[in-house]
Amino acid sequence: MRWLIVLAACAFAQGAAAADFQRWTRGATPELALEDLKGREHRLADYRGKVVLVNFWATWCEPCRDEMPSIERLRDAFAAEPFEVLAVNLAEPLSRIEHFLAQMPLGFPILRDRDTQTAKAWHARMLPATYLVDGAGLIRYVRYGEFDWSSEPARAKVRELLRSIPRSAPNRAERSADGENNARLAASARRSAR
């Protein structure tokens, strides 16, 4: 409870002034391995190769609630890209989270930080606290306070991190099928030319 009071006090004191993207300077990315509302574990390591937005939030935090629709719009805007959202709820009962989601359905996983240890490891010193993680699993940016995640500055940061993900070459089966199709097309063109 004391942790929640400190977070609320920080949020009130810093307000929207802390809204700028800040480069992550606290070293290695802390571990994130938490269960979703159905008890399935999500590990940040499982999302390698994707840009991940990790958002720490709580239902009692009005700015957290207010920015959730914009996070959903951002997720929708990058639905065809290797981009994921993980929303980490801070130590609230399952019933309270489910009540909130009944009023505001969201399409991304909601994870439970039941003892706030993950939030502490990530230095989520106020709520909402949002981190942009690159395809290698490294935190690149952090943003404290409410933000319109569907805005152009947010999209630009996501696009920047998406560009850093190496595009893999097609696997052998795909290359083989493409080669066979190209050979068939070339043979067909030769026959037509005769």
Question: What would you note in describing this structure?
Answer:
With 194 residues, this protein is α+β, with helices and mostly antiparallel strands. It has one domain (2-193): Glutaredoxin, CATH 3.40.30. 40% of the residues lie in helices and 20% in strands. The chain contains six helices and eight strands; from the N terminus they run αββββαβαβαββαα. It has helices at 2-14, 62-77, 94-103, 117-121, 152-163, 172-193, and strands spanning 22-23, 33-36, 41-43, 51-57, 83-90, 110-113, 129-133, 139-144. An eight-stranded mixed sheet has the order 1-8-7-4-5-6-2-3. Helix 3 links the parallel strand 5 and strand 6. The longest helix has 22 residues, at 172-193. It is globular, with a radius of gyration of 21 Å. The protein starts with a helix and ends with a helix. The relative contact order is 0.20.
Layout of helices and strands:
Elements: H1 2-14, E1 22-23, E2 33-36, E3 41-43, E4 51-57, H2 62-77, E5 83-90, H3 94-103, E6 110-113, H4 117-121, E7 129-133, E8 139-144, H5 152-163, H6 172-193
Parallel strand pairs: 4-5, 5-6
Antiparallel strand pairs: 1-8, 2-3, 2-6, 4-7, 7-8
